[in-house]
Each structure stands twice: as C-alpha cells, then as structure tokens.
Write a structure and sequence with these properties.
By secondary structure, the chain is α/β, with parallel strands linked by helices. It is built from 14 helices and 18 strands. A hairpin with an 8-residue loop joins strand 14 and strand 15. The structure holds flavin-adenine dinucleotide (FAD) and uridine-5'-diphosphate.
C-alpha cells in the first residue's frame, strides 16, 4: 500500500488540472514543486497592488467552451483583450497586422488598397513557403516583414528567420478590418486576483497535498521526509505524473533538447503610467529586449479594491539560448529537436507507471487552454 495514488511532479497548470481531477475522484495526490511557489510559469506575485506576471505575461484565451467553463470554477476573469503595440525605432504600429497597421505603414485607407499592397509585395515568393521568412512575406509582404517581424523574431528565437519553421508565424492573425484584438478567440481575459490564486484554488482539496521547494530527482534518489519519517520513492505513490523536462527525466542520456529561455528585468517605478499599454514589442534588431510589459494594465490599472495604483511595475523581456540550470521556456520545435524528442518519447512510453505531460514533459509549444484541454483528456482516460 503506497502513501498516495499519484505523485504529481510540477504545480503548473497541467499538474494542477490533473491533481484536481484525480482528487475529485477520491484519489490522493502529492504534488511536489521544485520552485518555492506554485503555478509554474503562470505564477503571479502581488507588488504594490499589481499582479506581476513573474515568468512572462500570460493572457488567457480560448475557443474551447469546455475549457473556458472549467477554468471559471477556479477564477473570475476580467474583460482584458490583448492589443499589443509594436515600436519600430520610435514608429508605433498596431498589432496584430490589421487595417490600422496597414494605414500607418503605407497610408492606405481601404481594405482593397491594403490587399493590393500586400499582393504586390508577396509576389516575390512564388512557391510554398519553406521557412518563417518566406511564410511571413507571403502573409504580409516585405515592409511588414522587415519592420515588424524580422528583428523581433530573430531576437526571440536567436536564429535567422530563414532557419525557423513557418508554423511559428502562422498563428499571427492578418486582418483587413480595423481590429487590434491579438487573439482569434471567443473567450479571453485575466483571472481577477491573479493566476496564483487560481492555481491555489485548483489545488485546494482535501485529497491534494502540495510541497514546494522539492526536486523530483532528489526524491527519486533519496526519498522524501514525511511526518518525521523518510519514505522511499518506490513507496510514495502508485503512479507519477511528470511535468518537468522530458530529457531531464532520463538524465539527458540521448542528448539535450534545446529551449529558448527568457530573462526578465523587472522594475518598480514611482509613476502611474510608463507606456500606456500592457505590452509593447520592440521590433527592431538593435534594442536588446523583445518587449516591455507594464503589468498593471492587465487589470486596467486598478488594485483589488478598484483603486487607481500610483506606481507601476515594468518588465523588459530578454530572450536567450537556454543552458543547463536556466529556466526552460519555449521548446525549439525544429527538425533536430523534434527527432530527439521522438526518441525520448519512446523511452517515456516504455516507462511504467509514469505519465509525461505539459509544455516540458511533451516538449510542445502549448498555450494555457491547450494544456488544460490535454490534461483533462488524459485525466479522463487515466482516472
Ligand atoms: P509549467 O508551467 O512549466 O509547469 C511545470 C512545473 O514543473 C514548474 O513549476 C516547474 O518548476 C516544475 N518542475 C520541473 N521540473 C521539476 C522537478 N524536477 N521537480 C519538481 N518540479 C519540477 N499561454 C497562453 O495561453 N497565453 C499566454 O499569453 C502565454 N504567454 C506565455 C509567455 C511565456 C514567456 C511563456 C514561457 C509561456 C506562455 N504561455 C502562454 C504558455 C503557458 O505558460 C503554458 O502553456 C503553461 O504554463 C504550461 O503549463 P505546464 O504545467 O505544462 O508547465
Ligand atoms: N512576432 C513578430 N513580431 C511581433 C510579434 C510576434 O514577428 O511583434 C512573431 C514572432 O516570430 C513570434 C511569433 O510571431 O515568435 C508568435 O508571437 P506570439 O506573440 O504569439 O508568441 P508568444 O511570445 O506569445 O509565444
């Protein structure tokens, strides 16, 4: 008889959804998290009344009604709609690419004029796009590619656009209407009170025990101190759900999967309004950061009581190549890494009583809604 039914490694969205589903079915879960806080990358921290997105700005958006209804059980969402602005050497453009962008870029006024400008510029690509550069030009033409895509993308991914897969850019909408809403999603918003509170609510169940500051690999090797006794890993739980990096689980024995990492330089400023928008992208190559987030605008500049906040917190986001010891953020789904992942996946499938899930466990560029959807699906089959 083991202590728990499930050992959940990682308290991010995937781990939290799975733990909750298992707990609701009467199964006992132990969730271990190597960071000192729960929530994984969606973790937010309150600074001077502002919910600061510690691991990068997170805007919840989905077309999946089941996912939207599910997440409402744990948080109320505000009506925030993401509409970032691009700053190219002091010129400001609306994102995503829409009539406001085309008007500013070319002075065009009607959708026909915009379409014909794009048509004229995209004709340099006369074949199926083979990489991100060709995909971008064939979507929006050369001017927008040069000013709003090339520099930003090369900073973000640390590779030339000609060496990046085209799917990265396919998810950016291009619209011949005046609409700055970044996401094509039926439902969108930010959890009121922060993501951390939302994850806390998910994990708040009599069948779930959460312990932070505990690394799975340490537990695997040395067991875990519980109620004054040391329990071996093998005696801890019937099954493990692992949401950490898949290659780390196997001791990197087939090689290291590459990630892009992000470094945040966060400052508290003694002024009420720094940039007038939650997200401003710096799309030139020279500015070293990719974007500046001004966190208070995710909640319209108000604190939990609805008061205006006199200060502001901004984060400059620097993209960097991941090296062991850094936080892994974005999987690099190019051919080389995808093949290596497939090899790890075979090992994962052969691993008894362990489920691999989430952005790191499956080495996938998942949005939050997709993580919830997949975790619910897996829980549905498993439990
Ligand atoms: P994670 O949140 O990474 O959770 C994994 C957890 O496992 C972590 O807490 C980690 O510390 C823990 N862990 C790892 N190894 C161990 C170990 N050995 N022992 C114990 N614990 C361990 N999605 C959106 O929908 N909208 C957005 O606007 C958006 N913006 C994003 C911005 C950035 C910068 C990034 C990186 C991602 C963004 N995402 C966004 C995606 C979103 O963050 C993910 O979909 C989601 O957080 C993934 O959840 P997860 O549980 O799979 O992984
Ligand atoms: N992108 C760009 N310019 C921008 C914003 C995005 O070229 O101002 C490109 C870039 O290649 C990026 C991709 O579009 O990787 C997807 O952007 P998104 O903001 O959706 O990615 P996220 O950072 O949310 O994962």
């Amino acid at each position: 008889m083991k202590k728990y039914d499930y050992l959940i490694v990682g308290s991010g969205l995937y781990g939290a959804v799975f733990a909750r589903e298992a707990a609701e079915k009467g199964l006992k879960c132990l969730c271990i998290e190597k960071r000192d806080n729960i929530g994984g990358n969606v973790y937010t921290e309150n600074v001077e009344g502002i919910e600061v997105h510690k691991y990068g700005a997170h805007i919840f958006h989905t077309n999946n009604k089941t996912v939207w209804e599910y997440i409402q059980k744990f948080a109320d969402f505000n009506r925030y709609t993401n509409s970032p602005v691009a700053n190219y050497k002091g010129e400001l453009y609306s994102l995503p690419f829409n009539m406001y962008t085309f008007n500013k870029m070319w002075g065009v006024v009607t959708p026909e004029e915009a379409a014909s400008k794009i048509e004229e510029q995209r004709s340099v690509i006369d074949h199926e796009p083979q990489n991100l550069e060709e995909q971008a030009i064939s979507l929006v033409g050369t001017d927008i590619y040069e000013k709003l895509i090339k520099g930003y993308t090369e900073k973000q991914w640390g590779r030339p656009c000609t060496e990046l897969p085209s799917f990265i850019i396919k998810r950016l909408p291009v619209r011949l209407i005046f609409d700055n809403n970044y996401f094509n999603a039926l439902y969108q918003g930010i959890p009121i009170g922060g993501y951390t509170k939302m994850i806390e609510n998910m994990l708040d169940h009599e069948n779930i025990k959460v312990v932070t500051g505990v690394d799975f690999f340490d537990v695997k090797e040395n067991g875990m101190e519980m109620d004054g006794e040391r329990i071996d890993y093998s005696a801890l739980a019937e099954k493990t759900l692992y949401t950490g990096p898949i290659d780390a689980y196997f001791g990197f024995k087939l090689g290291t999967l590459q990630y892009r990492s992000v470094r945040f330089e966060t400052e508290l400023l003694d002024k009420p309004n720094y940039q007038g928008n939650a997200v401003i992208n710096y799309t030139d190559r020279e500015t070293p950061y990719t974007r500046i987030i001004e966190h208070k605008w995710f909640e319209f500049g108000k604190d939990a009581e609805g008061n205006d906040i006199p200060k502001t917190v901004i984060s400059k986001e620097y993209s960097s190549e991941w090296k062991p010891g850094d936080e892994p953020y974005y999987p690099v789904n190019d051919d080389k890494n995808s093949k290596l992942y497939d090899e790890y996946k075979k090992l994962a499938e052969a691993e008894e009583n362990v489920i691999f899930g989430g952005r790191l466990g499956e080495y996938k560029y998942y949005d939050m809604d997709k993580v919830i959807e997949v975790a619910l699906e897996v829980a549905g089959k498993e439990l």
